[in-house]
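Hi support team,

I submitted a single chain yesterday and got back a structure, but I'm not sure I'm reading the token output correctly. Could someone confirm the output below corresponds to the sequence I sent? I've pasted both exactly as they appear in my results page.

Thanks,
R.
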Amino acid sequence: NEANPQYVIEASVMEGTNTVTVLISKTTSYFSANQEVPHVNNATVTISDGVNPAQNVALTIDGVYQIANYTAVSDRTYYLTVSVDGKVFTSSAYMPVSPSFDSLTYEKFNGGFGPPGEAPYLMTAHFKDSTGIKNYYRMLVTKNGDLLNKPFNLYLLDDQLRDGRYIDAPIFTAFCDLD
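Hi R., thanks for writing in. Yes, this is the structure output for that exact sequence:
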């Protein structure tokens, strides 16, 4: 409760041409009710890929730094540097090669899930895992263009038992009627 506030830095970069977003705030007391999170607006933020020159990530709104149309490619390490109040924070993350989904299939599923009286559908993603690389997969599922983003809609897997194999990944969280 009486510890000095610490910086909290959250960053997101995705493969392809997207917006890089970095959120910077400070911690607050765990015991203070309804305390607003203090945003940090005086940081200098850069991102680089070790190949091209570092690019500045500009403050857009309170505590949110962004760079639009940033192209990130796989098989490269990305470096984030945040300088604020005389402190420098650095991080790096390797972006592995993404597998290509070759198909997505669905079939009626009579497993007792879904609305009463209606048989839901079970979707299955089909793809080949990269050999010799420890991979983790996150599937984002949408329905009619809307991201299904509740805890029971999150689908994560790894290749620990399937390294280099063809994977048929049933998406249990996406039971839905295909309307």
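A quick pointer for reading it: The chain has a mean pLDDT of 86. Let us know if anything else looks off.

Best,
Support desk
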